[in-house]
């Protein structure tokens, strides 16, 4: 595990964008694993700037997102599909048919299990993920793999912890329906990516970063599973590095 501490959140975003661009420019048919949350937004913005400056084309890129809320339609403003279109896909030349998120609109359990299985198959068919971008929850979650998630987990239904629901409340209007379930890639699915790049910024992430980097490998801090990966880079700003 490589840990890179940079001065500011802006530097973290630029580092992430450069890594994405390098991967896309190096491969004939690059496969990116993407993340939502507020942390990667600036990285997407920097990658969009690079696209506009003709430094990169995403025309051959295939993407798989980590997770999606269950019971929310794709066109809903709170869906992760909407988020990705708004913050990244609609600004670059990627065909939308190359962009995948777990299909989670259904509330039927059997259907969701089937969709989870199909998602794993689609990743395999694409040849696996070259570069997986990750954020980290304040409780150490990656994707929506909450504490106690099996380190061998695959894409599946996961209930969100109270603390995650609380942390993500800021994205929902007062009284608006907030999902308590998600379909998420599993920890083992994530670890199968050839390269991992986890971003964390701000003091709220300092404890989770410490547990991930210096703590024991444990299902209580799902991000600690990155210690097992051969090519995992953690890029953080000085605030998120405060407890190291
Ligand atoms: C959500 C996402 C995670 C993300 C985390 C942190 O729960 N499922 O993939 O890493 O939030 O988000 P933020 O970057 O907004 O702190």
Automatic annotation (TrEMBL):
Keywords: Carbohydrate metabolism, Hydrolase. Residues 9-233 form the Glucosamine/galactosamine-6-phosphate isomerase domain. GO terms for biological process: carbohydrate metabolic process; glucosamine catabolic process; N-acetylglucosamine catabolic process; N-acetylneuraminate catabolic process. It is an enzyme of class 3 (hydrolase). It catalyses: alpha-D-glucosamine 6-phosphate + H2O = beta-D-fructose 6-phosphate + NH4(+). Pathway: Amino-sugar metabolism; N-acetylneuraminate degradation; D-fructose 6-phosphate from N-acetylneuraminate: step 5/5. Its EC number is 3.5.99.6. GO terms for cellular component: cytoplasm. It comes from the Bacteria. The active site is at 67 (proton acceptor), 139 (for ring-opening step), 141 (proton acceptor), 146 (for ring-opening step). GO terms for molecular function: glucosamine-6-phosphate deaminase activity; identical protein binding. Transmembrane segments: none annotated. Catalyzes the reversible isomerization-deamination of glucosamine 6-phosphate (GlcN6P) to form fructose 6-phosphate (Fru6P) and ammonium ion. Belongs to the glucosamine/galactosamine-6-phosphate isomerase family. NagB subfamily. Homohexamer. HAMAP family: GlcN6P_deamin. This is Glucosamine-6-phosphate deaminase. It comes from Marinomonas balearica.
């Amino acid at each position: 595990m490589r840990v890179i501490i940079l001065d500011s959140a802006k530097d973290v975003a630029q580092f992430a964008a450069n890594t994405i661009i390098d991967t896309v420019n190096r491969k004939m048919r690059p496969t990116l694993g993407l993340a939502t949350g507020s942390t990667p937004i600036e990285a997407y913005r920097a990658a969009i700037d690079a696209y506009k400056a003709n430094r990169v084309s995403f025309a051959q890129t295939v993407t798989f997102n980590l997770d999606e809320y269950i019971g929310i339609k794709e066109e809903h403003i709170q869906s992760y599909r909407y988020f990705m279109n708004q913050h990244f896909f609609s600004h670059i030349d990627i065909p939308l048919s190359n962009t995948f998120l777990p299909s989670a609109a259904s509330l039927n359990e059997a259907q969701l299990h089937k969709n989870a299985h199909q998602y794993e198959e689609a990743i395999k068919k694409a040849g696996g993920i070259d570069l997986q971008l990750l954020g980290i929850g304040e409780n150490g979650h990656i994707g929506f793999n909450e504490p106690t998630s099996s380190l061998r987990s695959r894409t599946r239904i996961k209930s969100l912890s109270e603390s995650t629901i609380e942390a993500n409340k800021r994205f929902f209007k007062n009284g608006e329906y907030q999902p308590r379930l998600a379909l998420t890639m599993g920890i083992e699915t994530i670890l199968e990516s050839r390269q991992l790049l986890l971003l964390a910024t701000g003091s709220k992430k300092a404890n989770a970063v410490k547990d991930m980097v210096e703590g024991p490998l444990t299902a209580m801090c799902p991000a600690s599973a990155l210690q097992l990966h051969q090519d995992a880079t953690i890029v953080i700003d000085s605030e998120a590095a405060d407890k190291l």
